[in-house]
Amino acid sequence: LGATRPRISVVGTGYLGATHAAAMAEMGFDVMGVDSDPAKVAALSEGIVPFFEPGLPELIRTHVASGRLHFTTDIVEATAFADVHFICVGTPQARGSNAANLSYVEEATRSVARNLTHDGIIVGKSTVPVGTGARLRSIVAGIVPAGISTELIWNPEFLREGKAVDDTLTPDRIVLGGTTALSEAVMREVYAAPIAIGTPVILCDLPTAELVKVSANAFLATKISFINAIAEVCEAAGADVGVLADALGHDIRIGRQFLNAGLGFGGGCLPKDIRALIHRAGELGATKAASLLQQVDEINMSQRQLVINMAIEACGGSVLNRRIGVLGAAFKPLTDDVRDSPALNVAAALHLRGAQVVIYDPEASSTAQRMFPTLTYADSVEEAATNSDVILVLTEWEEFNSIDAAALREIVALPVIIDARNCLDAAHWRAAGWRFTGLGVAPVA
Ligand code: UGA
């Protein structure tokens, strides 16, 4: 190890692992992705990505064809093949608790350690509660075959869904926790391409690396709940949160990103990561972080209820038998991911109250349908809007900006729209005769 170009294995081929494996191949390495799901491995081996991520299918096809990228279900084969083993499996919220479920990370690490045939480095990439790496290190030390030397380090990932390929090829920073001189040298070789274009490398201990990741997500979540809290004040005071956010954003200490008021955050990361941090901070007796983030979570969840209440009010106090057109199901645009999607949460709550909810999403209808089969899905904005009493915009897909408000008015029962992502041009809709409401702006009489 260290003498020849390292070969790479990537354990877990979800959003993180599939993207990381493809990016490593793009950077010139021989890569083997491992997953226990044979259907996923078969699909990826043919360049088919089982989820929507712009640019990823092309990258995977290129490197499956170039021979640098392989997928297997066989952890023994992958471990024997590689020198650097990335752990990219999920850490979902545990059932009935705020804690993270670490069983997949633990099992993946054990499988690699147990099957090592030569010296290698195990690199944790999954998002884990602080202290996990240290625990995994002692597990690894107990099971690694005699005569083989291995290290376990942490290298958290910061990719966003929808921008995963770019984020992986050109990250903002590379955090390496718990390296020795040897593993640092190997990782600098692995990340030679981004380092060559100036990506900063931060060397730190294991717990700091683990915490950088969860703190980054906690900070982003806090920004969103902050602006949603201010949006409430704006609405009560007759101010406009969008203009306010633009003005705040000019201060480079604040920055404009993640200050979009609306339905709040969802997805497979932010919600479960702040809850895991609340839980872990509590275990560590760090009560300030726990209580701050508890508020962030509560404010975020209250946005969903706020939008549900706005829909009920728009329907005159009850949604029973009212037809509601929902635009957006994904937790954000440019993904078909509906994990903890605020949009589907709102849609399902209104359905439960007796509304006829018809949902349109440009990419996420089939994933949404698998999760909420009892809801109705449409193939177009028009189909979702037909005969509706109110339209709710719950995910800010670009396509919704080009809706012809005048034409849509002709097919609805009532021209009422709630823009829960503040993404549409209110003036355009009002000019076409719609009753248009956003969040964090005083309603127009
Ligand atoms: C997030 C982080 O942004 C990544 O850096 C991180 O690597 C990733 O989690 C992870 O831990 O794997 P992602 O879950 O893809 O990425 O989504 P974001 O782009 O962060 O959006 C999260 C949610 O916040 C979405 O529901 C979005 O609609 C919402 N949001 C975002 C707002 O409500 N307002 C904003 O101003 C921005």
TrEMBL record:
GO molecular function terms attached to this record: NAD binding; UDP-glucose 6-dehydrogenase activity
Annotated keywords: NAD, Oxidoreductase
Keyword Oxidoreductase: yes
Superkingdom in the source lineage: Bacteria
UDP-glucose/GDP-mannose dehydrogenase C-terminal domain mapped to chain residues: 325-426
Any single GO BP term: UDP-glucuronate biosynthetic process
Record-listed substrate binding positions: F158, L159, R160, E161, K213, F258, L259, N260, A261, G262, G266, K332
Main function: Catalyzes the conversion of UDP-glucose into UDP-glucuronate, one of the precursors of teichuronic acid.
Similarity annotation: Belongs to the UDP-glucose/GDP-mannose dehydrogenase family.
Protein name: UDP-glucose 6-dehydrogenase
Organism: Marisediminicola antarctica
